[in-house]
Design goal:
Elements lengths: L21 E4 L11 E5 L2 E7 L2 E5 L13 E5 L5 E5 L11 E5 L2 E5 L5 E2 L13 E5 L21 H15 L20 H11 L5 E2 L3 E5 L7 E7 L4 E10 L8 E5 L4 E4 L7 E3 L4 E7 L7 E9 L10 E3 L21 E6 L7 E3 L16 E6 L4 E5 L6 E3 L4 E7 L1
Parallel strand pairs: 11-13, 20-21
Antiparallel strand pairs: 1-3, 2-5, 3-4, 6-8, 7-10, 8-9, 12-19, 13-18, 14-17, 14-19, 15-16, 15-18, 21-26, 22-25, 23-24, 23-26
Length: about 400
């Protein structure tokens, strides 16, 4: 290019579109426990680069589905604990059948002193109540009363009873919204009681249809909670058709999901609430009898994908979870999750039948199962090969399988 005159060097200012807001995570702080499982808090903020400077933004501007956890599990060293028990008490009766009880303590194997029972929650615990017999009572000598023996109540019995009750309740999940005032004819006797029970049984139920109407007016309980569930690829929208809530008296309606939390009382009729995910819990608190709301809900394919291909959704009352999940092209680098939602009046138990997360002495802790109690947002981490039993405080749980 030497024969050609060289142009002067020029610098032009360019203004590209600003980068979208993103999540910023500060390094985690100290572990909350000196041994065993603890939590380390980390600050998660939404920031955006503007004119070369990092500017703090409101959280809703960042992708909610990608928000990192504000607390991460941490383990400094392994703790060792075990259950210990007091002596059995005297039989509760002087004759006939009674019960004996004993207290349980969680002991540290290092200090042999009682510690918080939460440290022993993963270890199997022996029974603390048992039957006893103090001999026949004077008036019962020579005779045996049928059914006098103590019958053990097992967890399987309770689960079977709960499942039967759930199946019965699901027959009357939906309360129809009448198009106009009812005719003056009234049902008689048992029919009127049946209609009243059908009207009031909406609280504590899980609705799984694609659409429907939920009438929460006139319920007897102060707090009435319902849940709506759909497949993972869908999202739920709710419209309040009618509301008779008394805001001055403190009556309120609360909507909660994995990506949203909203309360309201005034200007509720015809307002639209979007869950942005496949589950939504609606809780109504009333003070004055007869008040409440009537909801209409529907579902559709979600506008944004908020789940991984290996994620799964369970709605109960029971199921089996197997991990790892076979993915296309054998990709296993993502964290697979299982979401569990049951009726609001029910609770969740997760039992590991078989767990192999590597050797117990593995100090890297890359392989673990994280269980989150959605109602309290508390997480528990399980390592190694020890089977475990976990129980929820609410009706929703999430499981993450790492590595």
């Amino acid at each position: 290019c030497q024969p050609v005159p060289k142009p002067e060097s020029r610098v032009e200012v360019c203004d590209l579109n600003p980068c979208p807001p993103r999540w910023k995570v500060t390094p985690a702080g100290p572990c909350s426990s000196s041994c065993g499982l603890g939590l380390a808090l980390q600050l998660v903020t939404c920031v955006q680069i503007l004119h070369g400077q990092e500017v703090l933004q409101e959280e809703h501007l960042c992708p909610v589905a990608e928000k990192p956890l504000t607390s991460v599990p941490c383990v400094i060293r392994t703790c060792s604990y075990e259950w210990s028990f007091s002596e059995w008490s005297e039989c509760s009766t002087s004759c006939g059948n009674g019960i004996q009880t004993r207290q349980d303590f969680c002991l540290s194997s290092l200090t042999h002193k009682p510690v918080n029972p939460l440290f022993c929650r993963h270890f199997p615990k022996a029974v603390v109540v048992r039957g006893c017999s103090a001999g026949p009572c004077p008036e019962q000598e020579g005779t045996e009363s049928p059914g006098a023996e103590l019958q053990p109540v097992t967890a399987a019995t309770l689960l079977t009873t709960a499942a039967a009750a759930t199946q019965h309740r699901h027959k009357e999940l939906y309360v129809p919204l009448a198009a106009g005032p009812p005719e003056q004819t009234k049902p008689s006797g048992g029919e009127e009681d049946m209609a009243k029970r059908s009207f009031l049984c909406v609280c504590g139920n899980l609705f799984l249809n694609a659409s429907g109407i939920i009438n929460m007016t006139g319920v007897e309980s102060r707090d009435c909670t319902v849940a709506i569930g759909r497949p993972l690829r869908e999202e739920i929208s709710v419209t309040i058709l009618e509301s008779s809530l008394n805001c001055t008296a403190g009556e309120v309606l609360l909507f909660s999901g994995r990506m949203m939390w909203r309360t309201g009382c005034r200007k509720l009729p015809l307002s639209l609430i979007n869950s942005r995910t496949n589950t939504l819990i609606v809780k109504q608190r009333v003070v004055l009898p007869g008040n409440g709301v009537i909801l209409q809900y529907s579902s559709r394919i979600a506008a944004k994908k908020y789940y991984q291909e290996c994620d799964q959704q369970l709605f109960g009352p029971q199921g089996e979870i197997v991990n790892p999940v076979q993915l296309p092209e054998e990709r296993q680098e993502v964290v697979c999750r299982t979401f569990i939602t049951v009726a609001p009046r029910q609770r969740i138990s997760i039992r590991a039948l078989n767990a192999d997360l590597g050797p117990e002495g593995n100090q890297t802790y890359f392989n673990y199962i994280l269980v989150r109690d959605v109602s309290t947002m508390k997480t528990v981490v399980f390592h190694g090969k020890q089977p475990f039993l976990w129980q929820s405080t609410g009706s929703q749980a999430e499981i993450e399988f790492h590595e």
